[in-house]
TrEMBL record:
GO terms for biological process: response to stress. It comes from the Bacteria. SUPFAM superfamilies: Winged helix' DNA-binding domain. Residues 6-142 form the HTH marR-type domain. Coiled coil: none annotated. This is MarR family transcriptional regulator. InterPro entries: HTH_MarR-typ, MarR/SlyA-like, WH-like_DNA-bd_sf, WH_DNA-bd_sf. One of its GO terms (molecular function) is DNA-binding transcription factor activity.
Length: 143
């Protein structure tokens, strides 16, 4: 056991945190040439899944994995980059819908090519190790 940890449970938390940072940095480097943050890419991918339809900000936030994401800030930046459009919902004028532009749909398809092998970051693990790790991570979140 590494001397900076009181026990293996503390070490586990540190390992999970470092691994999250490692994966986040890996994806950030892949997105840098496209001038996108990881969170922006996630928003664009989620909107891409519903394209040409739109999602409300609330629906988008529900689908995001990052619990504390600031959807307004993220979408403001994507609107400024002309990658998404905000539209007032004709059925409910208090609701704002978000959707990709036709150009951004093509852009996201191009960026997605960079992530076609994103599993490569864990490809050195065996099938059994992947299954065990998935089971344990699910168990941590769903206690």
């Amino acid at each position: 056991m590494h001397k900076t940890y009181r026990n293996e449970y503390q070490r586990l938390i540190g390992n999970i945190h470092r691994t999250d940072g490692y994966i986040f940095n890996h994806f950030s480097q892949k997105l840098a040439p496209f001038d996108l943050s990881v969170q922006q890419y996630v928003v664009l991918r989620l909107l891409s899944n519903d394209y040409p339809n739109s999602l409300s900000a609330g629906e988008l936030k529900e689908r995001m994995t990052e619990l504390n994401s600031d959807v307004t800030r993220l979408t403001d930046r994507l609107v400024a980059k002309n990658l998404i459009i905000r539209e007032v919902d004709p059925q409910n004028r208090r609701r704002v819908n978000l959707r990709l532009t036709e150009h951004s749909k093509q852009f996201i398809d191009t960026v997605a090519v960079e992530f076609s092998d994103f599993e490569s970051i864990v490809s050195h693990l065996t099938d059994d190790e992947v299954h065990t790790l998935n089971t344990l991570l699910d168990k941590i979140r769903n206690r």
